[in-house]
Amino acid sequence: GAVVSQHPSRVICKSGTSVKIECRSLDFQATTMFWYRQFPKQSLMLMATSNEGSKATYEQGVEKDKFLINHASLTLSTLTVTSAHPEDSSFYICSARDEPEAFFGQGTRLTVV
Amino acid sequence: GQNIDQPTEMTATEGAIVQINCTYQTSGFNGLFWYQQHAGEAPTFLSYNVLDGLEEKGRFSSFLSRSKGYSYLLLKELQMKDSASYLCAVNSGGGADGLTFGKGTHLIIQP
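Above: the input entities. Below: the structure tokens describing the complete assembly.
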């Protein structure tokens, strides 16, 4: 099956700094990728849809200026958490569709201290 | 709005069969997914249904009834490693849309 690779798997950063998370589709092209966030014992919540060559689409309540998304190529999307705060600590997961299936990256555990 | 319901937790015995139900009310429907997620890991794909009926894949089967807004995941010959959360997710749009997930069912397998 299709593979989606996400990096890093874990990151600890200081409050106020920025963190970049990469998501790559390894054996297929993805014009659209998705970013989800999951808090402990909660379900995955869609944050934004990343579109290759155009602006990302954000879900209601997600701050565009805080969660910067760049989809520079058909195989790479990045999520940058800017000025991170402890409440941003969560599990971030990217996904890409290889119709009809949807595949997920390994996830990134972000801890802001 | 979008609403997906599934039981919070279920317990079953090793070697037995368990059925996890999912009901949904969404603005549109373009397929339903089941994922398995172990704690601290990303979800892994189990099944996809877009037409009514049963899809079978080894020990796992998934059923869909679009008229009832209902699906179930059936796990046979349960193994201890099947202890995980099982997520029901609906694609209410097209391929350019993200999935809406239920809260997941935590399945506990007992010896």
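Note for the figure: The interface with chain A takes residues 31, 33, 35, 40-45, 48, 50, 87, 89, 91, 95-104 of chain B (CB under 8 Å).
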